[in-house]
Sequence to fold (72 residues):
Amino acid sequence: MNADISRGEWLRTSEATVQLGLSRTSLSKHRANGYLKRGRHWITTGPYNTSPMLWNVEAVRETMSRWAPPKQ
Fold:
């Protein structure tokens, strides 16, 4: 999969959590659940499972803006 890393600002996880107001755990859960997609919302900086991730904050915000509020 080819990521278009020229689009948007890509930040390390620690920086992205501050910009998005989310915890590291929340980002991981959204990624694991498939809401955030590799190449669009996040990429790894290396080939290993433990390689650091970069997050496209703009793309994550756009996706989050379409999520429905919880039903009461």
Summary: The beta strands are 10-12, 42-44, 53-56.
